[in-house]
C-alpha cells in the first residue's frame, strides 16, 4: 500500500474537516450546512478509472446508467474490453472518443499497482501520459481511488462554483486562481474538495427553492 498520507476511513475525513474548519471560518459555516462529509473512496485499478472516464462531462444520472451497463456487460474488465472493441463499448453507451480512450486503456496494460508507490504528482503524471486522461481525471483518480489526502482538481466546475458562492467571489475562479486559493488548505485539500462538492449541492438546492 501507499507510503503517502491517505484517507482510508470516515475518521480521516472528519479529521480533515475539523482542521479546515479551524483554518477557515467559511469552511466551518459550510460544514454546518452540509453535515458530515462522505468518504467517497472508489476501488483502485481499471474499473475505478473507467468509472471516472464515464463520468466526464455528463450528468451523474447518465454516468451511473452507462457504467451500470458496462458492468452488466463485463466491460469493467480490460480483457473483455479487448474482445468487445469499439462497437461493444459504443453499444453500452460510450461516446466515440470515450470508447477509444477506454480501449486504449485496456490495451495499455497499465500498472495500476505501481501508482500506490508514486507521489501524488508522479501518479498524476503517469495517468496523464495515457490517451484521453487529462488532469481532472488523473486528479480524481488519485484523490478517490488512491485515497490521497492533499489533491485538489481545480478544473472541476462544481468546485469552482462552490468556491465562488462560499467565498463571495464576483466570478467563478479560474483553475489557476482556485489552485492558488487551495494552497492554504494543504495538507487536507482532498477533504476541502469533498466539502466544496457537498456545498455545491447545498447551493443547487437553495437555487431550486428560490
Q: Layout of helices and strands, plus pairs?
A:
Layout: H1 10-23, H2 25-34, H3 46-54, H4 60-72, H5 78-91, H6 96-108, H7 120-128, H8 135-145, H9 157-166, H10 175-182, H11 189-209
Q: Could you tell me the radius of gyration in angstroms?
A: 18 Å
Total beta-strand segments = 0
Mean pLDDT: 93
| Strand fraction | under 5%
Shape: globular
What series of H and E elements makes up the topology?
A: HHHHHHHHHHH
Structural class of the secondary elements?
Answer: mainly alpha
* Amino-to-carboxy terminus distance: 47 Å
Number of helices: 11
Query: Residue share in helices?
Result: 55-70%
Poorly predicted runs: none
Commentary on this structure:
Helix content is 63%, strand content 0%. With 210 residues, it is mainly α. Helix 1 crosses helix 2 and helix 5 packs antiparallel against helix 6.
Quick summary of this structure?
By secondary structure, the chain is mainly α. Helix content is 63%, strand content 0%.
Brief descriptors of the model:
11 helices, mainly alpha, single chain, globular, 210 residues, 63% helix
Amino acid at each position: 500500500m501507499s507510503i503517502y498520507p491517505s484517507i482510508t476511513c470516515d475518521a480521516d475525513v472528519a479529521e480533515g474537516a475539523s482542521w479546515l474548519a479551524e483554518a477557515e471560518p467559511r469552511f466551518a459555516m459550510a460544514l454546518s450546512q452540509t453535515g458530515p462529509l462522505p468518504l467517497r473512496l472508489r476501488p483502485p485499478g481499471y474499473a475505478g478509472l473507467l468509472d471516472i472516464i464515464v463520468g466526464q462531462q455528463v450528468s451523474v444520472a447518465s454516468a451511473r446508467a452507462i457504467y451500470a451497463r458496462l458492468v452488466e456487460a463485463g466491460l469493467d474488465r480490460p480483457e473483455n474490453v479487448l474482445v468487445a472493441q469499439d462497437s461493444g463499448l459504443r453499444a453500452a453507451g460510450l461516446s466515440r472518443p470515450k470508447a477509444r480512450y477506454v480501449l486504449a486503456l485496456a490495451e495499455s496494460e497499465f500498472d495500476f499497482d505501481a501508482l500506490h508507490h508514486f507521489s501524488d504528482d508522479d501518479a498524476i503524471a503517469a495517468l496523464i501520459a495515457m490517451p484521453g486522461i487529462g488532469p481532472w481525471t488523473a486528479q480524481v483518480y488519485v484523490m478517490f481511488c488512491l485515497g490521497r489526502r492533499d489533491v485538489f482538481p481545480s478544473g472541476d466546475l462544481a468546485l469552482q462554483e462552490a468556491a465562488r458562492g462560499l467565498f463571495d467571489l464576483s466570478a467563478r475562479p479560474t483553475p489557476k486562481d482556485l489552485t492558488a486559493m487551495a494552497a492554504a488548505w494543504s495538507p487536507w485539500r482532498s477533504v476541502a474538495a469533498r466539502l466544496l462538492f457537498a456545498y455545491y449541492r447545498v447551493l443547487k438546492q437553495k437555487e431550486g427553492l428560490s
